[in-house]
Design a protein that fits this description.
This protein is mainly beta. It has 1 helix and 5 strands. The protein has one domain. The two termini are about 15 Å apart.
């Protein structure tokens, strides 16, 4: 797979809500990769999960935040920042 990068948002059921591309690649490639990451349980999930996925030299790098607790207002949610890195071949 060629190098790519994109932002993602995933709901608490593991459904992809949004993909925003940052490289010259097709959205279907990014959705396919995110589906593989989710099925391989490489991404922690919370009420909402959002972040950045980069693939460089067949290494997947995830930098993301997981909503661990919903607040009373939109801006009072509690978030935990996480990083994962693994070979593309693991998923």
């Amino acid at each position: 797979m060629k190098d790519l990068s994109f932002e993602f948002t995933v709901d608490n059921g593991g459904e992809i809500e949004d993909i925003e591309l940052y490289s010259e690649t097709m959205e279907i490639d990014c959705r396919s990769l995110m589906t593989r990451i989710l099925k391989g349980k490489k991404l922690g999930l919370g009420e909402k999960t959002e972040g950045m996925c980069e693939v460089e030299n067949d290494i997947v790098k995830l930098h993301y935040s997981v909503c661990t607790e919903l607040g009373d207002d939109w801006n009072t949610d509690k978030w935990e920042e996480l990083k994962e890195e693994f070979p593309l071949g693991e998923i």
